[in-house]
Design a protein that fits this description.
By secondary structure, this protein is mainly alpha-helical. The chain has 9 helices and no strands.
Length: 168
């Protein structure tokens, strides 16, 4: 502003106006906007991360509640949740076979209602209709009953953990 001052008016007023206009130009510049945009973006990402974490915490809490509710329902069927690990199919081919039978059972309203209402697995009816052997299904009786209860009941989050072939 000293070099451009032509002697007209008060120098300090002229210098004040020059500095003010330069500052306005700087704040409007792309560099300043980019700095603030990145701060806003970082804040947005932080908020999104917090939101995702909160949603995940709520989901985990609801999942725990569903597991507790399932434990209560399984008591009616004399099934302990810890037994399910022992009585679920481990071998790949056995798992495929049991999952296939489960998907057929879930499509049959008569069998599903017998399981839910009477509290037992109608093995003779299943063997008759689906041409399988008792030896292939008997060890997994509690597992089959539990999967049917989860798929038919109000266990929305637990359904996500069911085998893909079963829920279709």
């Amino acid at each position: 502003s000293i070099d451009r001052y032509n002697g007209e008016g008060i120098f300090f007023e002229y210098a004040k106006m020059v500095v003010k206009s330069r500052l306005l130009d700087y704040f409007k510049s792309k560099e300043y906007k980019e700095k603030h945009d990145s701060i806003d973006e970082d804040q947005y990402l932080l908020n999104q991360g917090s939101k995702k974490q909160y949603i995940e915490e709520i989901r985990v809490q609801r999942l725990k509640e569903e597991v507790e509710e399932l434990k209560k329902v399984l008591k009616y069927y004399n099934i302990e949740i810890l037994d399910l690990h022992k009585q679920s199919p481990k071998h790949f081919l056995t798992k495929q076979h049991v999952d296939h039978i489960l998907s057929l059972i879930l499509q049959n309203n008569e069998i599903v209602s017998l399981i839910i209402d009477k509290g037992y697995l109608p093995m003779n009816l299943i063997l008759e209709q689906y041409k399988t052997s008792r030896k292939k299904l008997e060890p997994y009786r509690k597992y089959i009953i539990t999967v049917v209860i989860i798929c038919v009941g109000q266990f929305e989050l637990l359904k996500d953990y069911m085998p893909g072939k079963v829920i279709q």
